[in-house]
Automatic annotation (TrEMBL):
<dbReference type="InterPro" id="IPR050465">
    <property type="entry name" value="UPF0194_transport"/>
</dbReference>
<feature type="compositionally biased region" description="Basic and acidic residues">
    <location>
        <begin position="312"/>
        <end position="342"/>
    </location>
</feature>
<feature type="compositionally biased region" description="Low complexity">
    <location>
        <begin position="275"/>
        <end position="311"/>
    </location>
</feature>
<feature type="compositionally biased region" description="Low complexity">
    <location>
        <begin position="246"/>
        <end position="265"/>
    </location>
</feature>
<protein>
    <recommendedName>
        <fullName>HlyD family efflux transporter periplasmic adaptor subunit</fullName>
    </recommendedName>
</protein>
<dbReference type="GO" id="GO:0030313">
    <property type="term" value="C:cell envelope"/>
</dbReference>
<feature type="compositionally biased region" description="Basic and acidic residues">
    <location>
        <begin position="179"/>
        <end position="202"/>
    </location>
</feature>
<feature type="compositionally biased region" description="Basic and acidic residues">
    <location>
        <begin position="213"/>
        <end position="227"/>
    </location>
</feature>
<keyword id="KW-0175">Coiled coil</keyword>
<feature type="region of interest" description="Disordered">
    <location>
        <begin position="168"/>
        <end position="342"/>
    </location>
</feature>
Length: 633
C-alpha cells in the first residue's frame, strides 16, 4: 500500500510539474510575441497611377495695344493709372506746351536749312558740269603730249645703249699684260727653295757655333787637367810638353767669331755631315795644325826615352784627352767656316721674293671696270626696255583719263537725301502742330485696360509705346509656371480646370503653349486661353490638371516605399525557425520605381512577384532580419 501511495504522489507531482512548464511556455511565448513589432502587410496589385497638378497663375491680356506719341517731348501730367479702363476719347496724358513750341521751332529751322542746302547743291551741280567739260579738253591735250614725251625718252635710251657698248668694246681691246700661272709657280718655287736652304744653313751655323764653344771649353778643361797634374807631380815626366805644348794649342787655334745671323737650333743632319768630314781629316789637322800638341808628344817620347821604363799612365791619359779636345775644336772650326762660306755665297746669289701684286691689281681693276661697263650696258638696255613699257603705261593712263573725263562723276544724292529728310521732318512737324492744336493732350484710340505706363511727368517721351493697353476685344490668357516634375503631366492641348479668384468659379480650357521660362531657367511657362468674356486682367487663379498612367503589373502602397541615398527599398515578410518554433522576419529588397504618386508606386518587375507580402506599416522601426508579427489587418 505504501508503494502504491508513493507512486500516486510521484505521478501527481510530475503532472503538476509539466503543467507548470506548459503554463510557463505559454506565458513566455505571449510575452515574447507581445514585444515584437506588429506589421501591416499587402500584396502587389495591377493598377494605373493617377497624377494631379495644381499651380497658381494670373490672367494677362490676350493682345496688347500701344499708345504712341511723338518722342522727344516733355510729359506734363498723366491722367490714367494701371488697371484703368479707357475708351476712344479718354485723356491719357499731356505734354509741356513750352517744350512743344521749342520743338516746332527746331523742326521749322531744320527744314529751312535743308531747303537752303538743296539750293546750294543745285548750283554746285552746274559748276561741276563746267569743270567736267574743261577736264575732257585737258585730258585730250595731255594724251598728245604724253605720246611725244615718251617717244623722246625711248630715243634717249637708245643713244645711252650705243655709248655704253662703245666704251665696253674699247676696254676689251686694252687688256693688261699678265704672267702665266706656270711662270709664277716656277719663280715662287725658286725663291722657296733658296729661302729654305738659307734657313737651314742658319740653323747649322748656330749649331756649329755652339759645338765650337763646347769644344773650346773641353780643350781648356783638358789643358788645365794636364797642367794641374804636372804641377802636382813635378817635371820628371815631361815638363816642357805640359807647359809649352799644352798652352800653345789654344792660342794658335782661336776661331774667328761668325758674323752670320743666328737661326733656329736643331738641324742635326747638317752637323752630322760636317762632323764626318772633319773626322776624316782630324789626324792630319791634329798633327800639322797644333805644334804644341806635337811638342808635348815629342817631349813625352824623349822623356820616356830618357827615363827608360818609368812611364806615367795617368799623364798619358790626360795628354790623349787633350789631343782629342784639340782635334774636336779644329773640326768644329772647319765646319763653321764651311757653313759661313755657303751663307756668304747664298747672300751673293740672293733670290728676290716674286711679287705680282701690281700685276694682279691692274688685272682686278681691268676686270672691275669691265664688269662696271657691262652693268652699264645692261642697265642702259633695261632702261631702253623700260622706256617702251613706260610709254605703254603712260599712254594707257592718258587714255583712261580721257575716258574718265567723258564719264559723269559720282551721282550727288544730296538733294534727294535732303528732300527725304525734309519729308520726314514735315511729318513730325505735322504731328507737333496737330498736338499743339489739341492743347498738347493725348487721347486713347481704342477700348482697353492700362497694363503698362512707360512715361513719367517731367520726363522725355521715349521711342516706342508710351502707354500699353490690354485689348478687351480679344480673349484673355492664363499664365502659370510649372516645375520640371509638373510638366511631365501637363502637355499642349490637354484639357485643364482653372479655378479663378476666391469665388470658386471653375473653367474648362485647353493648354495652348508650353516652353521653358526665360526668367526662371529649369521651369516652364504654360499659357491657357480663356473663353471670351471670362476673367479680368490681373486676376489670380489655380490650374488643375489630371492625368492617368498606363496599368502597371506591380503596384504597391506609397508608404511601403523607403528611400536611402537616392535608392528605394521595401520590406517583405519571410518565415524562419526560431527558439519558439516558426516565426516571421523581414528582409530589405531594393527596387526601381517606374512611377508614383502620393498613394501608390509602380516598381519594375523581377525584384518581387504578385504573391510577395510587403510591409506597409509597422509599430516599430524595422531593419534587416527583424522578427515581427502580424498586426491588425
Amino acid at each position: 500500500m505504501d508503494f502504491i501511495r508513493k507512486k500516486k504522489k510521484i505521478l501527481i507531482a510530475g503532472c503538476i510539474f509539466f503543467g507548470i512548464m506548459f503554463l510557463c511556455t505559454l506565458l513566455s511565448k505571449g510575452i515574447y510575441g507581445a514585444s515584437l513589432p506588429q506589421v501591416e502587410t499587402a500584396v502587389p496589385e495591377k493598377r494605373a497611377i493617377g497624377h494631379t497638378v495644381e499651380a497658381a497663375g494670373n490672367i494677362t491680356a490676350g493682345r496688347e495695344l500701344a499708345v504712341d506719341a511723338v518722342s522727344g517731348l516733355k510729359v506734363n501730367q498723366i491722367y490714367v493709372d494701371l488697371g484703368d479702363s479707357v475708351s476712344e476719347n479718354t485723356l491719357l496724358f499731356d505734354v509741356d506746351q513750352e517744350d512743344l513750341k521749342e520743338k516746332i521751332a527746331e523742326q521749322e529751322l531744320a527744314i529751312k536749312k535743308l531747303e537752303m542746302s538743296n539750293e546750294q547743291a543745285r548750283q554746285q551741280k552746274e559748276l561741276d558740269a563746267q569743270k567736267d567739260l574743261l577736264n575732257q579738253n585737258r585730258s585730250l591735250e595731255d594724251y598728245a603730249l604724253a605720246d611725244t614725251e615718251e617717244n623722246r625718252k625711248i630715243e634717249q635710251a637708245g643713244d645711252s645703249v650705243a655709248k655704253a657698248e662703245e666704251k665696253l668694246n674699247d676696254h676689251l681691246n686694252n687688256q693688261p699684260k699678265q704672267t702665266s700661272d706656270e711662270d709664277r709657280n716656277n719663280k715662287k718655287q725658286e725663291y722657296t727653295d733658296w729661302e729654305s736652304r738659307m734657313k737651314d744653313l742658319q740653323k747649322q751655323q748656330i749649331s756649329a757655333s755652339s759645338e765650337l764653344e763646347s769644344a773650346k771649353s773641353a780643350e781648356e778643361a783638358a789643358q788645365k787637367a794636364l797642367d794641374d797634374y804636372i804641377a802636382a807631380h813635378g817635371s820628371s815626366g815631361n815638363t816642357g810638353s805640359g807647359t809649352d805644348g799644352g798652352q800653345a794649342a789654344p792660342e794658335e787655334s782661336q776661331p774667328q767669331e761668325s758674323s752670320a745671323a743666328p737661326a733656329a737650333e736643331g738641324d742635326v743632319s747638317g752637323n752630322d755631315t760636317g762632323g764626318s768630314t772633319d773626322n776624316e781629316n782630324s789626324d792630319d789637322t791634329s798633327s800639322g795644325g797644333n805644334q804644341g800638341s806635337g811638342q808635348s808628344q815629342d817631349s813625352g817620347d824623349n822623356n820616356s826615352g830618357n827615363n827608360g821604363n818609368n812611364s806615367d799612365p795617368e799623364r798619358e791619359k790626360l795628354e790623349e784627352a787633350l789631343k782629342a779636345a784639340v782635334s774636336r775644336r779644329e773640326n768644329a772650326q772647319k765646319r763653321l767656316k764651311e757653313i759661313e762660306d755657303e751663307l756668304a755665297k747664298g747672300d751673293v746669289d740672293a733670290k728676290t721674293k716674286p711679287d705680282y701684286t701690281g700685276e694682279d691689281s691692274a688685272w682686278d681693276n681691268w676686270k672691275s671696270t669691265k664688269k662696271s661697263l657691262e652693268d652699264s650696258v645692261d642697265s642702259a638696255k633695261q632702261d631702253q626696255e623700260n622706256s617702251v613699257w613706260d610709254k605703254l603705261d603712260a599712254m594707257l593712263e592718258a587714255k583712261r583719263k580721257v575716258e574718265d573725263s567723258n564719264l559723269n562723276g559720282d551721282p550727288d544724292l544730296t538733294i534727294e537725301m535732303n528732300q527725304m529728310e525734309i519729308t520726314y521732318r514735315q511729318e513730325i512737324l505735322k504731328k507737333y502742330t496737330q498736338l499743339e492744336n489739341n492743347g498738347g493732350q493725348v487721347f486713347g484710340e481704342d477700348n482697353g485696360i492700362v497694363t503698362k505706363i512707360k512715361i513719367s511727368p517731367g520726363e522725355i517721351i521715349p521711342q516706342g509705346a508710351s502707354i500699353v493697353l490690354a485689348d478687351l476685344d480679344e480673349s484673355l490668357k492664363f499664365r502659370v509656371i510649372l516645375t520640371k516634375e509638373e510638366k511631365k503631366y501637363v502637355d499642349i492641348e490637354d484639357t485643364v480646370t482653372l479655378k479663378l479668384g476666391n469665388s470658386g468659379k471653375t473653367v474648362q480650357a485647353q493648354v495652348a503653349f508650353i516652353a521653358e521660362s526665360e526668367s526662371m531657367p529649369g521651369s516652364y511657362e504654360a499659357v491657357v486661353y480663356l473663353p471670351e468674356g471670362v476673367g479680368t486682367v490681373g486676376q489670380s487663379g489655380t490650374l488643375v490638371a489630371s492625368s492617368q498612367s498606363e496599368s502597371y503589373p506591380i503596384t504597391i502602397p506609397a508608404k511601403a516605399l523607403h528611400g536611402e541615398n537616392e535608392r528605394y527599398y521595401i520590406y517583405v515578410l519571410r518565415k524562419q525557425q526560431g527558439i519558439l518554433g516558426e516565426e516571421l522576419a523581414v528582409s530589405r529588397v531594393y527596387v526601381n520605381v517606374r512611377d508614383k504618386n502620393n498613394k501608390y508606386a509602380s516598381i519594375e518587375e523581377g525584384a518581387i512577384d504578385a504573391e510577395t507580402e510587403i510591409v506597409v506599416d509597422s509599430t516599430k522601426e524595422l531593419s534587416e532580419g527583424k522578427v515581427v508579427r502580424y498586426g491588425k489587418q
